[in-house]
Amino acid sequence: MREKLDTKWTVKGKYVVITGATSGIGLAAAKELAIRGANLGIVARNQVKANEIAAQIKASSGNDTRVDVYIADMASQHSIRQAAAEILARCPKVDVLINNAGALFETRQLTVDGLEMTWAVNHLAPFLLTNLLLERLKKSEHARVITTASHGHKMAKKGIIFDDLNANQPYSFPKKFMGGPTFRYAETKLANILFTAELARRLEESGVTAHCFDPGLVSTNFNQNNGLLARLTMAVMKMFSRTPEKGAETLVWLADSDEITSSNGSYYTDMQMTIPSEAAQNMDAAKRLWEVSEEEIRQ
Questions:
Q1: Domains in the chain, number
Q2: pLDDT greater at residue 7 or residue 126
Q3: How far is residue 75's CA from residue 69's CA, in Å, rounded to a whole number?
Q4: Range of 125's domain?
Q5: What is the distance, to the nearest Å, from the Cα of residue 196 to the centroid of all Cα atoms in its chain?
Q6: Residue 171: active-site member
Q7: Strands 96-99 and 266-269
Q8: pTM for the whole thing?
Q9: Which residue among 15, 185, 267, 268 is the active-site one?
Q10: H or E element at residue 255
Q11: pLDDT tens sequence across 201-230
Q12: Residue 273's domain is classified under what CATH number?
């Protein structure tokens, strides 16, 4: 990795691409980064909603913030490739990439690419988008890739189940236990941490660093697409949850802080470096995950 920058790092004037910025911690982070002077590229699925959010961010920032909108369905590799191509065409420089979009699906679903949905959205989408934008990130003197992970990764005690990447086994659990979807989500969050560690290893000396974090239990619209039981569960959990603004604090800090310019590949909680699970420290698994992910995004 390159030496610490001569000038203090700040997100002011930097171009930040962020997924999942139309609600929850992504929206809270986008608003705060705009206030701090960042220019934003929002990757979203819904054009109308994204345009509304972009207008809100510009109005609330109180400055001449640039807020671009790129449309992509994170469950479609073709759609992600189209959005990345547009970003590359419109932006001569990308300084920060924030992989924040994520979801949990109660039933096993397959994407248009024939991949299990939670895996595709939570892991393969950021893996693909990062790789598509990587050469542009390297053109900055210093750039950062930040991925939203979760404390929930610790539920994936067996690590990545490489012989069942399309998750036939978890979703065979009795539905009433909701174990399958939860364990699958945990596996994808573990993948986020392993992806960050392997990305950091591959980016040594490049000037690009990789970081991931746990936002904590946050009161958002997450898991509202999975029926009444899921909505009731989330309603109870909201009583013990953080606000999106609190959940976004570490994300904003990772994007804006000068303290981490010499750090790479770490996992953070509440703006502190944290040791993840044993499975998340397995660099052999991280390397294998990278290799199988390359196969799953191969055209």
A1: 1
A2: 126
A3: 18
A4: 15-218+245-297
A5: 10
A6: no
A7: unpaired
A8: 0.91
A9: 185
A10: helix 249-256
A11: 999 999 999 999 999 997 655 444 545 444
A12: 3.40.50.720
